[in-house]
Design a protein that fits this description.
Order of helices and strands: EHEHEEHHHHH
CATH architecture of the largest domain: Up-down Bundle
Bound molecules: glutathione
Distance between the termini: 33 Å
Largest sheet: 4 strands, mixed
CATH class of the largest domain: Mainly Alpha
Oligomer: single chain
Number of domains: 2
CATH topology of the largest domain: Glutathione S-transferase Yfyf (Class Pi), Chain A, domain 2
Shape: globular
Strand content: 5-15%
Strand order of the largest sheet: 2-1-3-4
């Protein structure tokens, strides 16, 4: 049985729950209590020395980082739609995984941490990163249904949560209709699961 160490309100953890559900993989959730700093306890640091969730444990394998977990789950499922094998197609997916870890993390994710959880950040800088991200996504999605390929890939799942949580980040998607349409396409995938605070249509 796979075990996911997580925070219930984390978008990075949501993307793993979403991928597990889309693939129909049975798993158990282990909720850490952030306020009690359970993610900084020695037992958890042995799984992820960065002291961050999500972490996936699959038998003797321990996978940290949400993007790495999505890649692991797709390969483990043994199919090539979610994670293509072709060099150029795989590079396109990895480019968006990097976008999830950079622009998404430093844009809408930081804004949500600020407006929902009172984290002190440079709001103007995070808004600028978000605007550039949304412009790039709008341009791509105005011409294509999915971020990296003709079909949904782990790239879409990696980028999805913090865009779907835009209201909690005080990010207005009205000027980016192709992004809103893409969010709706992800919501329509068989096995989709959301989380509180996400746009629902
Ligand atoms: N690159 C990591 C980032 C993980 C991350 O920032 N996790 C947050 C929750 S969303 C966390 O554990 N924060 C606690 C901390 O950094 O101390 C990933 O994508 O998994």
């Amino acid at each position: 049985m796979l075990r996911l160490y997580q925070f219930a309100l984390s978008g990075n953890c949501h993307k793993v729950r979403l991928m597990l559900s889309l693939l129909g993989v049975e798993h158990e959730l282990l909720d850490l209590v952030g306020a009690q700093r359970e993610h900084k306890a020695a037992e958890f640091l042995a799984l992820n020395p960065f002291g961050q969730v999500p972490v996936l444990v699959d038998g003797d394998k321990v996978i940290r980082d949400s993007q790495a977990i999505l890649v692991y789950l797709a390969r483990r499922a043994g199919e090539t739609t979610w994670l293509p094998g072709d060099a150029a197609a795989l590079a396109a997916v990895v480019a968006w995984l990097s976008t999830a870890a950079n622009e998404v993390a430093h844009g809408p994710n930081l804004l949500r941490l600020h407006f929902k959880f009172a984290r002190q950040i440079d709001v103007a800088a995070a808004q600028a990163v978000t605007e550039t991200l949304l412009q790039v996504m709008q341009a791509r999605l105005a011409e294509h249904s999915w971020l990296a390929s003709a079909a949904p890939t782990v790239a879409d799942i990696a980028v999805y949560p913090y865009l779907a949580l835009a209201p909690e980040a005080h990010v207005d998607l009205a000027a980016y209709p192709a992004v809103s349409d893409w969010l709706a396409r992800v919501r329509a995938l068989p096995g989709y699961v959301g989380m509180p605070g996400m746009l629902s249509g």
